[in-house]
Amino acid sequence: MKFLHTADWHVGKTLKGRSRLEEQRAVLREIVDIALRENVDAVLIAGDLYDSAAPSAEAQRLVNGALLALAQAGIEVIVIAGNHDHARTFEALRQLMAVAGIDYSGMVRTAEEGGVHRFTARATGEEAVVALVPFVSRRRILGTEEIVTGTPSENAGHYERSVREILATLARSFTPDTVNIVMAHLTCTGGVMGGGEREAQSIFEYHVSAQAFPITAHYVALGHLHRRQQIPAPVPVVYSGAPVAVDFGEQENTPVVCLVEASPRTPATITDIPLATGKRLRTVTGTVAELIAARAGFGDDYLRVVVQEPVRAGLRDEVLEALPQALEIRIHPDFAQTRTHRGVQHTTRSPRDLFAAYCDEAGLQDPRLTALFSELLDETTGVS
Prior knowledge:
The longest helix has 20 residues, at about 150-170. This protein folds into two domains: about 1-275, 4-Layer Sandwich (Purple Acid Phosphatase, chain A, domain 2); about 280-380, no CATH class. Helices cover about 30% and strands about 25% of the residues. It is built from ten helices and 19 strands.
């Protein structure tokens, strides 16, 4: 049988205030086209369909349109919620999505209650079993009091043991005569962050060892880390990566979908299929004159511009006139000037930086406190 593995669509994500819905629409259309061209039996989407727990109506229309296009072509569509998605909304829509032929899971369930999805390959008749592990927050497993009172190592051990138990329970549905797949949204120990993930949900208690995955699995389809990578393990443990770079921290990532072929008696083979429709993000550096001279080579890429000149009146407007696709303009540190007013240095600091400074001043040197603050900030602002 053949299936596609993708994740971390982050539909609705803006970049420096600029909507990317049309770009995201083109990428999802490309993914649907690949699934049809390759005649796959299933498409597995391992979480973070949306960038926000409250996506816009247009973002939902875009995602639902892609899911329905796959389902109407007779393809099994299997979706789990990620940390950016609203798990309860997924659960509320679960029955309705099932009518459309889409398995839409927001919360971990037992196999009997829908925590395992079964399907049959159209061409070969092979049976597949997919264990579904949507994102499980640290607080759901540990509780706030335990997070605060336990040490980071204690919390990490408790979290991983709980996830191991979930995986082991669901894996009891695996048999030697089925293609056995795990799909989860989590951070695997040893994984490399792609640049746009929420740090608070990728550190400390959120790590799960690759050894936690059952050796009876033919393939482990992961979401959450945005860089395509395979974690060393007895079975293939794979992050498909994000199909669109969500910010400039991901500009070096290569967007792909993973085409997987497997049968009950043979190991899975994985082919990366590049995605070409998303816009490239790049950082360019130089004087204004140098940047203008090189602009033909930038195409329609979104740019982060680092100007190697001192700040002066009209500089930003000059750059934007020459490079309208510039979304961020910085002065190179060698040319930056520190502004002062009445002897007080002014700087732009993020909420995380301000909280870290407060903790330093108050003598609160506890990484758990910082991680909790970051998690609450993410949940409140919906910003990664």
